[in-house]
Each structure stands twice: as structure tokens, then as C-alpha cells.
Input
Amino acid sequence: MSTPAAHGQSQNRTVKWINDRLPIFTFADHFQDYPAPRNLNYWWNFGSLAGLVLMIMIATGIVLAMHYTPNSELAFDSVERIMRDVNYGWLLRYVHMNGASMFFIVVYIHIFRGFYFGSYKSPREVLWWLGVVILLLMMATAFMGYVLPWGQMSFWGAKVITNLFSAIPLVGTTITEWLWGGFTVGNPTLNRFFSLHYLLPFVILGVVVLHIWALHTVKSNNPLGVEMKGPQDSIPFHPYYTVKDYFGVGVFLLVFAAIVFFFPNFLGEPDNYIPADPLKTPPHIVPEWYFLPYYAILRSFTQDWWFFQIVFSWWGVSAKLAGVLAMFASILVLFVLPWLDTSKVRSGRFRPMFKWAILVFLLDCLLLGYLGAKPAAEPWVSISQWATLYYFVHFLVILPILSRIETPKPLPHSIAEAVLKGGGGAAAGATAKPMEKA
Amino acid sequence: MATSGKSETARPAAAHHEGGSRRDFIFLAGGAVGAFAVGAAVWPLIDSLNPAADTLAEATTEVDLNPIKEGQAVTVKWRGSPVFIRHRSKAVAEKAQSVPLADLRDPETDEQRFGAWPREQWLVVVGVCTHLGCIPLGQNPSDNRGEYGGWFCPCHGSQFDTSGRIRKGPAPTNLPVPPYTITKDNKLIIGQEQEKKPTA
Output
């Protein structure tokens, strides 16, 4: 598979001397040698975009930390100083702040790509797990980062989320006081969140390395969901997909720059420009947009909901604890997804029923996101209860049943066959697209 | 234990049948000591995150109750959280006392919470919603006090009555009553348990 330009075989004496002691040039050749399916479409750009955003976040974050003061008396003012006085501070902060949103947009698309094309199925379960771990780490990092400016939403977001742990029976209070380092969210909390907010991105980086390692072991899935069977099905990652990724990066940066320069506060909450006040809760607390669906699930558990009363109430679980458990379960269910969807066919293109199920599920997630931003009043509460129920029914009921009763369309024998014919069954138009690039 | 491969440490198989060799014992004992040492080394790191001594020292707050007129509400800060104080009229207190326990999610009589007259005229509760920690509205006369005349939490809609007890919404328990003392000269000390609760 190696190309003539492979550095690992270089006759340059310095290169060879180093490579014999640390095979870093052989490692670099991997980019050229790594075989990728020849039919990857633009949905496959979002993994490398996520990696790019992680780099942007780490770079801007390191510099911002040089100007920021993690003290409850000084934090808010130090952020304002970054905005007003530090050279390009406004740019660094707006990039970092909106970068978090871009990270979640990219990762959510990446996840739904995985849903639709069955990228979680054998042999990619561990690859999928590592992705879910990255998502959880991202959520923790984003949450703690949002607390650092110490505005009203920072403070009350931190208060509400750390209070989730008080729902744990018996040890709840002990755990929350341990998390806070006091009797409520305060300076000790801010300090430790700053420390962890700096640490976790590097943990994410480590898991990303494992994620890519697992990817390169089992290779990329593709829009047909048929494994590569030989050299006719693949092309080298470099230059074919590096160049395709670069194009995606260009489009992505246009969108990112438009937000940073023209609507930098569009995704934020105005209340976070009010300094934190421990004695006054803002009238309407909302998390950042990327947490809204989970927040809607959390809030949908009320004492008088029939589902809660049937399933949880009788064994002594409070509505609060049930809401917290459901919120965590909404992510943890992803770990067992490979065993809930038992259909052998990966790609949604060949699954006439699954295709609709995943579309309805996407709409349900968007609906939950919309409801998470609404006040806790009717009719929003009842609608979020049904939407929450559907979220879990999709995973625990619809997918297992659908996998059994659905008759998939015939799969192409190989990627090459489908691509060179210009169509994979009914999805002719869609498969033709990657050919233009290949 | 993989001892059989090395000739100098090879032992008769019988030693294993008698419940493990000396090497097994050393392995287990060493492992136990090692685990203890790791635990002992990690514990200071974990415990350092608990409230520090200076945080614990901010344990009491004093309030002069004399200027607070009947019907007035005052909010003070105790351990970084708000404490709601309300000067209740006899009618309001009696109404709170007359609620049947069966109507309550977290059954507690008003008397169990605040004692008997004249102590009961002072309602003292930690003003942090027991759901997820927001500060309920109801201390200002213009606030929404909910259906039960106490407090209304704006975050997730919990409603508390004039005794600070949960009546509606997601909160699982009543607003907690902090330990407090009312001295003879009408001074309220929050964070210190009354020696003996006066009874009627």
C-alpha cells in the first residue's frame, strides 16, 4: 500500500537515524497508507472538524487562562477586562465561547451520522463507546467552563446541576458539600471548576487518540455500510480525504467566523453579563442550547405524571431522583445501542423502516431541545413528558422490534460495484455524489 | 501462582493444595498493604475538597428581630445561602397549623417546625428550593407566592405554603428549618440550636 514518497523508507541518513530509534516517520506514513472507503460523503467530514475545534479550544483556552482570575470576587471583572482591555481578548473569548457551541453542533452531527449509517455496529462498538465517553467529558468540560465567568447564569447553572447529586439517597448532601467545598456554590467551587476545566480537554485529547486508534483498527464505516473487501474499495486517506476535509474546514470556518464576528452573543444568555448573586435566582434559568434536550428530560419528571407514578413512585424514588436518573440514562443508553439495534444491515439507506424511525427520533430530540428552553408550565410539561417517553421508547422498544420485523433492501456486493455502477439500489443519487470527489 | 516454570522456585504441587504457598500469602498481604497505602495517600486529596475550616467557621448569623413588623419578610445570608424570615400573624400561623398531615408530601406539623406561640410567629427557613437549589420567590410583597401563600420557585414551579412546606411541583421535601435560637432580647441566632424549645 505504501506510496513512493513514504518517509519510513527514506535513504536520508538523518531521517533514517531518527526513524530507527523512534519510528515517527513510519508513523507519519500511516496517513498516506491508511485505506479509506472510496465512497465517503460529506457526513464523514465531522470527525476531523471536531478534532479541529478541540485544537482551537485548547489554543484559545490556554491563552485565556493567562488573563483570567479564578476567584469569586474577581472572576467576572477579569472576564470583562479580557473583553475590553486585553489585546484581542474579545476575539479570543468570543472564539472560545462560541467554539463550545460549534464543538457540540459538529459532534451532534457526527453522532447522528453514526446513528443513520449504523457506525456503532460490530466491529465498531468500542470505537462508539469511546465516542460516548468523549461526549460525556465534553459535557462536563463545557459545563464547568460556563461557570467560570461567574455571571448569574454561571452561578445558577452550577447550583442547579450540582444539586442534581443531592437527589442521591442518604449521601446526597455529603456529596454536594464535597463538590462545592462549602454549603453552597462559592469560591472553592469556582477554583476547582477552573482546575478541572483546564484538565479535562487534555483527557479528551487522550480519549480522542484512543478513538482514532480504534478507528484505524476497524477502519471507517461508509454510506453503504458494506465493509471494504479489497483495494478496489478503498483510496488512500491522503491526499483524497485530507483535501476533502480541507474543503469542509473552509465551509465550517466561514460559519464559525460569521457567528464570532457578527452574532457573538446570539447563542448565549444576556443574564450571564450580570455578576453572580447568590441571593437572587434569575426568573428564567436555562442551560446552554446544547444541554436543553437533557434539561427537558430532567424536568419532565413531576410527582403527578402517570408514568412516574406507575414506574418509580411505588418503590420510593422521588420525582427529583427519577428525573436525574432519566437524564443520565439518556446518554448512558448509547453505550448499549449496538445491542439494541440488532439488524445486521448498517446503513439506513437499505432499511426502509429504520430510516423513518431515526428521522422521528431526530425530530423528538429537536422538540426536547425546544421544550428545554420553555418555562416549567403547561402545555410544555405534558409535551416534554411524551417527548421524553418517546426518546427512551425509540431505543428500548422501537429499535429492537424494528430490527426483527424489518426486511432490508438487498445490499450491493461491494463498495466498488455500487460506486462504479453509479448507484446502490434506491439511493442512486446519494451514492453518485461521492464519486465526483473520488 | 506461576511458580512451576522457574526451577529455583518450583515447589511440590501439594503446597498449593494445602491452601496456597507462602508466595501467595506474601502476594496477598503485599497487595493489601499496597491498597491501604494508595488509599491513605489518595484520601488527603479527596478530603481537601470538603469544606475547609474557615468555611465551617462561618457557621452562625445574628439578626435583630425587633424592627421586623408583623407581616414583614426579611432575607439574611447564612453559610452563603439565603434564610427566609417571616413575622407571621397569629391567624397565618394558625392556618399553617391547621393543615391536615394527609395533605402534605413531606408530613411535618407547623409546631414541629417552629414550636409554639410566641416562637411560632417567627418563621425561619433556608430559602433554597429542595428541588435543585434555586431561590424561591415570595419575600417581596409583589412576588408570586404560589397557590399556598408561601413561596413559588421560578425554576421548576415548586410551591410552598406559609410554613415553608412543599405542596406542589417537583421538590421532594419541605424548606428546611435551620438550627436557630431566639434570645430573650429578641435576637435570632441562626446556626445555633435552642437549648430548650419554649412550649405554650
Notes: The first strand of chain A starts at residue 35 and ends at 37.
